Amino acid sequence: MNKRILIPTDFSKNALNATRYALDLYAKQNCDFYFLNVFHLDSYTTNTLIMPEPGSAEYDSTKAASEESFTKLLEMLELHNDNPKHTYHTTATLNYLSVAIEELIAKKDIDLVVMGTKGATGAKGVIFGSNTVKTMEKITQCPVLAVPENVRFSPLKEVVFPTDFKLSYKRKEMDYLIDIVRMHNAAIRVLHISKNETLSKTQEENKQLLEDILSTVECTFHNLKNIDVAQGVTTFVASRNSDMIAFINKKHFFFGSVFSKPLVKEIGYDATTPILALH
User: Fold this and answer.
1) Predicted confidence (pLDDT) at residue 79 exceeds the cutoff of 90
2) What CA–CA distance (Å, rounded) separates 264 from 164?
3) DSSP codes joined into one string, 189-208
């Protein structure tokens, strides 16, 4: 069965870069790529009670402009990324981004969402645009991959998986990470950052469970002590030139402590590592 990958796009350079990264990441796989553009109407705000309907001049012209942008995008992809294994589909809709994404995930049984980390505004100093952050937090039906704007794809060698071993793991949660690693014959580097010298009994059991789950791929375990979590992850990834960071977004635990302001402050706006949020 083909992989089904959803790529929300605002037709910015950053969104195009995320698209190219996804196409290269899955270059050897049979895939259906679903491109989603959520357009907005200037006359409509959340304070307006009446949602513009198809048939109104503004709605039709805005949707037509979105579809025209899709035509240009597909022409560009066929010129530079012509891959017989890949099929492209487009959807232009007037909706809230997270709602539109959730509807398409359910309708098309999407396996992965891939997004650029900045919106069209490209605010300096902001790695994760608000739309990307909200999507990574709200979308729980499938993994979300966020691709920084200056990252160019290179074959995966290793993926860093930060964890505190405090929560148990399920094989289903790790399936997608294992799948990506196998696809590129890469390795997983499990990173534990702690203040304590020893793990608790529960942490030891969870670590053993993780070892069992990851036993089918190359995997090593690493420890860093007495360092800020965000700084530790950033330093570890930079020192090894790792290709991706993956984490399980359980109850927003890791998201709040690592992938919001602390990490943004640590790595500034020169982010170089894609982030895969598993659920």
Assistant:
1) no
2) 20
3) EEEEEESSSS--HHHHHHHH
Instruction: Look up residue 35 and give its two tokens.
Output: 């491109």
Q: Which domains does the chain have, with CATH numbers?
A: 3-147 (3.40.50.620), 158-247+261-267 (3.40.50.620)
CA distance 108 to 35: 12
CB 136 within 8 A of CB 247: no
* pLDDT 10s digits, 134-187: 677 778 899 999 898 889 999 999 999 998 898 888 999 899 999 999 999 999
Whole-number Å distance between alpha carbons of 274 and 243: 7
Separation of alpha carbons 161 and 221, rounded Å: 9
Structure-token pair, residue 168: 């148990």
| Distance (Å, whole) CA 36 – CA 51 | 20
Task: Enter the tokens of residue 212.
Answer: 């069992």
CA-wise closest residue to 14 among 135, 129, 133, 111: 129
pTM for this entry? 0.87
Q: Which residue has the tokens 């007495």?
A: 226
pLDDT of 90 strictly over 60? yes
Residue type, 2: N
Q: Does 100 or 96 have the greater pLDDT score?
A: 100
Place of tokens 């490209």: 122
